[in-house]
Amino acid sequence: MDPITHGLVGLAAGNFSGSSGVLTNPMALACFIGSIIPDGDIIMQYRGDFSYLKNHRGASHSFLGAGILSVVIALLVHLLFPGSNYWKILMWTYIGCLTHICLDLFNSYGAKIFWPFCDKRIGNGLLLSIDPFLITTTFFVYWFNKTNMFYSGLSIGAFLIYLLFRLHRKINTSSFIMKVIDFPVKRLVLLPSMKGFFSWDFIAYGERKILTGKVSMICRKIVYRDRMVQTEDWIRNLVMKTEMGQFFQDFTKEYHISYEKTENGKGKAIMTDLRYYVNDRYMHHATVHFDNKFNPIEEIFHPYNMSRNIKVTV
Questions:
Q1: What span, in angstroms and rounded, lies between the C-alpha atoms of 175 and 197?
Q2: Distances from the Cα of 270 to the Cαs of 142, 249, 299, 301, in angstroms?
Q3: DSSP summary character for residue 298
Q4: How far is the C-alpha of 135 from the C-alpha of 127, rounded, in Å?
Q5: 314: pLDDT confidence band, cut at 50, 70 and 90?
Q6: Residue 232: CB atoms within 10 Å
Q7: How confident is the model at residue 177 (pLDDT cuts 50, 70, 90)?
Q8: Angle between helical axes of 149-180 and 132-144 (0-180°, round to 10)
């Protein structure tokens, strides 16, 4: 989710601690800060896109990491409000952090919520990264909670119904796609489209095929994008042993590997993250060059665009 949505949800949640003023209510202030602080891992950006994307939604987005952050934030807020109850501030800080983590579980990037015990990102791809319905209902919760709890409750209920609606349409649309694809589908992934409130992007995996496209969840119109052939297992295993291969396995579960020979018996493998499709292209790629004995000689990460090159030491 975007920082504005996270902050707005934090403000709305902090309202339930009493006074809504973040400058006068330490619990509301702590909840607001807690709702945005997990994205403080953006500090890794100073080391470049590779380091940032490798660490984003990692430790700071886990239940343990949120607890550690909450202890520090609560102490700072407590110092700003002498005489305040530290333990209440700590509780509301953690609530703010939890709203952030829970929202991030609803989009396709996911979060390592069980770090350090489990290094897997968990996400269900249900909400858009910037979801207008979530922003609207959260604003109503924040606004009405100051005057009328009944309307605030209605807003929360409307959002829960919206979640159920999107879940129902996702299941229904998945069933439809499975019926119309012209090869046996072993696994189907449906993700909120980067463009289009009522659209899903899909990735269909066959025995040796991958099909990607876009489908409207209202009229069920399908637009096919790419038909890809799965690379041979021995090449895939070779690529996965490289640093970029290890990174991609951690970064995304939805990727494709292509391999082509170059000059003098050399070759290169291109990994493509299939989750994000914007402006007629996939956002993230990586390239691994091999010598004629299949030893990696150069590894390059292409964040956001194939024209951006970040070399990784082999």
A1: 20
A2: 47, 14, 10, 10
A3: E
A4: 11
A5: low
A6: 12
A7: very high
A8: 170
